[in-house]
Amino acid sequence: MVADNKIYETVIWPYRLLGNILLLGCIWLITFGVITIRHNLVGKQIDSLLSQIYQTTAVFGWGLDDVTLEGRVKTLKNDVIKVINLKRGENILEIDLQDVCDKVKSLPWVKEASISRRYFPNIIHISIKEKEIKSIWQYKNKFYPIDEDGKIIETDYVPQKNILQIIGEGAPEHFNELLKVVSKDKELYERLKAANYISGRRWNLIFDDVEHGITVKMPEEDFAAAWKKIVKLDRTKGILKRKLTFIDLRLKNKVIVRLNKTDEEAEKK
Prior knowledge:
The protein has helices at residues 2-39, 41-59, 77-84, 97-105, 171-182, 186-191, 223-237, 261-268, and strands at 66-70, 110-118, 123-130, 133-139, 142-147, 164-167, 192-198, 202-207, 214-217, 244-248, 256-259. By secondary structure, it is an alpha/beta fold.
């Protein structure tokens, strides 16, 4: 019986030793991890090493020579230079391209940006795509440019006559829905001068002239069907070429029109 016990202990001790080693190893790793996180020893060493590398390479011809910019139309060059804050001579390898990209994209006219390094000479190249103005939002006697995503471009802007004007509270948020429908018919879309968002529910569309054009009162629901109706009426009857004050499409199975005053007086005579 005693001999059997000795044989058992002889067989099991290597496993116990291995288990203790693994346990001590886990404890050491956890302890090292806690100390590293608390004091950031590895991070500090890496940062120190990188700093030395950047300083050395800058001396040996890796300094920034220039910054180039393409795609700019409305974005001011000085605004780009100011926001990226890069200085000639600083190490081109040290420049954080993502940080530069984020700064450029923060400019009001910039929709997309890409940044790249070019060497000999050492250049940071910036390529931008600017936002496209799709409409002008008139709100409380002020004008705000609206981009293709229906968002306000936060910058000073002088309105142009050939750009669609939208009016009313909440109009920018619903502009994309409007644009998807009306832009399908190029001819009528080009004649559309203003769109007034009424009471946060529906649109009035004004054709040809903002002050003296024909106003089409669109229904609250099924805007797309009403737009198809006005397209069909204009193609078959030329309804938008007549001297009308407004066309009312709010009733599902009716089209109500009103002649302007001069035509009413002519009819009476």
